[in-house]
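User: Can you predict the 3D structure of ABC transporter substrate-binding protein? Sequence below.
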Amino acid sequence: MTATARLALTATLCAFAAPALAQEITINSFGGAYEEAHRKCVIDPFTAETGAKVNIVTAYSADAFAQLRAQKDAPQYDVIHFSGGQEIVGASEGLLLPVTEEMVPSLADLYDFAKAGVANGEGPAYQIAAVGLVVAADKVPSEPTKWADLMKPEYAEHLVLTNITNGYGMIGLLMLNQIAGGSGDDIQPGLDAVSQLLDAGAVVVSTSPEIQAEFAQNDAWIAPYASDYAFTLKKAGLDVKFIQGEEGTPASFITANLVAGRDNVELASKFIDKSLSPDAQACFSEALRYTPTNSKTVLTDEVAADVVYGADAAKGLMRFDPRVIEANRSAWTEAFAKTIAR
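Assistant: Sure. Here are the predicted structure tokens for ABC transporter substrate-binding protein:
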């Protein structure tokens, strides 16, 4: 075989090999029930439609981001998912790529808040964990309608707060701080509110199972927490409902991000598009009661009753700046620990 023939054969083989290599992506997921829903709602349908293999690394947001930073010259992920705002830092450090409607057509149908940072490289939010008031409907004499109601004396001995080492607990504190007149520069009003509530009989827990125990065994009526966990309590047989406070609904944004420095940009973009599709979002909402971000998502009445749903309801969603939280996390955690030490 001549040198020219060998080169031609090599080029032909590469041409056939390239699509096969491109038919595989690596993502992270969060394990447990979330990963089960992720497979059912996005990963398996994506594989069925494209024939692509999806390699899953179970890694929560902070760990996945640490891996992304450490592997910046040779990243393992094609798509990386965050729930703690890490996409803002990752985009600023050049670790993520911007997506466009040409790459991800479903972007066109997202609510504006879910795609506000995509031009900067921040991935779009494909699910929202809304934080509001989880209420024991069969116990509370009168249902609260706003966050400020948490300060009512009649609720105090039946109120469950969550330590801010828990992400939802952090959001709950910042919301209490806001209604008490505080700001990102000053959380003392929120800490004072927590102290007042504890003096009146409220309790602080650290984990989700502890919240369930308080509702099941200790006559809890109200806990500032997320809609997805309210659904968990309902599945456990407890009569609870999720109520949005009139002042607004703070939320954790779950984002799908395109990683820089990888070869499978087109296939990874298709995976993100699948995550944003109405069918995938409706599936997630049914499975875990997350709020959809695609305006064309249709939910059953039963599911819609448990989540923030529709354009009007979505207007009440709010997000505390993850950069501010991260910059102050250590100091705030120490201050909160001192406040609840009693």
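The longest helix spans residues 3-22. The chain is about 45% helix and 15% strand.
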